[in-house]
Each structure stands twice: as C-alpha cells, then as structure tokens.
Design a protein that fits this description.
It is built from eight helices and twelve strands. By secondary structure, the protein is α/β, with parallel strands linked by helices. It has a single domain, classed as Rossmann fold (3-Layer(aba) Sandwich), CATH 3.40.50. It is globular.
C-alpha cells in the first residue's frame, strides 16, 4: 500500500471542547444513563461471554443419556453505539420530502449536504452534531424511493440529475425561509454507503458545485475520472469492515494528483461512527482536511490517516 500510516492525535483540549459542545447542545440525551456511557471500547469488550461447560454431575439426565440442560441464551448486544438524534428543524418542501436543517453555530454561506445510506437512518448525523454545526449549516435530504420493508426509511434512485436539482432547490428554500445566503455552488457533499455512491456521481457530473466530497463506507472502489472538478476528497471506513477498496480508491486519487486521504475509524463496523465522542473527533479531522487550503504536493503523500482516541 502506498504511503505511510499517519497517526492523527487530537490534543486533549480539542477533545474536551468537543465533549463540552456535545453536552451543551440543544439536543437532549435520551436517558441519563446513556450520557454516562464510556467511549467506544474494543471489539472484544462487546463479545458475549462463552458459556461455561456443564459439570459432570449435571451433564447426565434422568435417563442417563447424558443430555445437558440448555444454557440460557446470551443477551442481545447492540452492534452500533446509539446516538442522540439531531435537533433538526424540519422544513416543508412542498411536493418533495421535508428538508432537515441543522443550523450552523454561526450561520454564513457554508453548507454541508448529507446523503444517508440505503434505507439508512438520517439521524446518524447525531454522532457529529457539534462539529457539523461548527463547519456550517447541514441539510439532510431523504432518498426519493421508500423502503418497503422499513417504513419511514428511504433509498436513492439512480436519477442523479434529479438529485442535483433537489439539492439546489433545498438550498433555495432554506435561504428563503431563514433569510440566509448559503452558497449553492460551494457545497461540502457528504454521502454514506449508498449515499456515497450518489455523491460520487454528483461529483462526476456536477463537480464544480461540489468542490469538497466526503465518502463514508463506499461499497465499491472509486473511479479517478469522476473527480476531475473536485478540490478535496476524504474517504473513510470502519476498522471492522472491509476497507481494501476504499483505501485503494484513495490511493488511486492521490497517485493521480488529487488531494485525497483515507481515514480509518477504529473499532467500528459499517454504518457506525463509534458514538458521539468518537464521531465528533473523526469528523473534525475529516472536515479540517477537506476544508484546508490546498498544500504543495508532498514527496510521499499519505494515503491513510488513523483516527486516534
């Protein structure tokens, strides 16, 4: 793999700032117990304990056939760390699905558009609310096709032109409703899973409107030729999922001269940001990368950044 692994360590002061921001935000925690939960532990910490072997005395049944009493089932463990749903303001979009608006800490022209995964949860944004609000106003759209087996969830069709028009219309409606001046031609585009595939297509056909692209858990290797008008591309995945194609796509982009980087989120699987503390830390690094001014090319570009806790 090209490039060395770069270990990103956030200063303790920065992490403390994220924690205070998360606790002081407008969204209430679901329960007091969840607010005291520790950060993401290692994968082994979530493994159910192995059942103990039955004793020799207890292994034989009344008939002497040696049948053992059934062990109690292991408790079901969560695969993802739950997060507090974002305190969205929901804006009626007329004939389109409602637009979810997460206001910036200081509203300006910067806008971040989030595209969820296939039948995914738009409330996954709860993993990084303070960092998103520090970057700009976040608009979360819903897919244009309902998921029949998951009421209230949506997926994305392949109509990229219609999606680009939906994003432009959403920005116009939000600007009108709040008297803001979000820039429809300078969007930070954030797609996750299937949403990452749609974000890649938007970059391919309308890249001049999407100069900064964040692709979380893309299911296939990126194609370099799709990003010719994009200034910065961040790709990330979890350490518990297969990321070879993600890292390979980032390496391809770097080799072609693009400002790109792959970020590895430790201890998480596909569809997870690792909880609110880890999610804010990771997205802080990612947004800083895509928002930074272009730097002179390095002699040995770094392809992987590992988010440290």
């Amino acid at each position: 793999m090209r490039g060395a692994v770069w270990l990103v360590r956030a200063p303790a002061l920065a992490l403390a700032t994220l924690v205070l921001a998360a606790q002081g935000g407008s969204a209430e925690t679901a329960a007091s117990a969840s607010s005291a939960s520790p950060p993401l532990a290692s994968a082994a910490a979530f493994a159910p304990p192995a059942p103990s072997a039955p004793s020799a005395a207890g292994s034989a049944g009344p008939s002497g056939m040696g049948s053992a009493a059934a062990a109690p089932p292991a408790p079901a463990l969560p695969t993802h760390i739950p997060v507090t749903p974002p305190d969205y303001e929901v804006l009626d979009a007329g004939s389109d699905r409602p637009i979810r608006v997460l206001k910036a800490a200081q509203p300006g022209r910067r806008v971040l558009v989030y595209l969820h995964g296939h039948c995914g949860d738009v409330n996954a944004v709860g993993a990084f609310v303070p960092v998103a609000a520090a970057h700009g106003t976040l608009l979360a759209l819903l897919g244009d096709q309902p998921c029949k087996d998951k009421p209230g969830r949506f997926k994305w069709s392949g109509d990229i032109h219609a999606l680009d028009q939906r994003i432009a219309r959403a920005i116009r409606l939000v600007n009108r409703a709040y008297s803001w001046e979000l820039d429809p031609n300078d969007i930070t585009l954030f797609g996750y899973s299937q949403g990452a595939m749609r974000a890649e297509s938007l970059a391919r056909y309308y890249g001049k409107r999407y100069p900064r692209v964040i692709l979380g858990g893309p299911p296939r290797r990126l194609k370099v030729e799709h990003f010719k008008h994009v200034q910065a591309i961040a790709v990330f995945g979890g350490a518990l999922e297969d990321t070879h194609h993600m890292e390979g796509g980032a390496e391809d982009l770097i080799a072609a001269g693009f400002r790109a980087r792959f970020f590895l989120l430790p201890g998480v699987d596909h569809g997870d940001f690792g909880g609110e503390l880890a999610g804010n830390l990771a997205l802080s690094e990612i947004l800083d990368f895509v928002s930074a001014p272009a730097a002179p090319p390095a002699s040995e570009p770094t392809a992987v950044a590992k988010i440290a806790r």
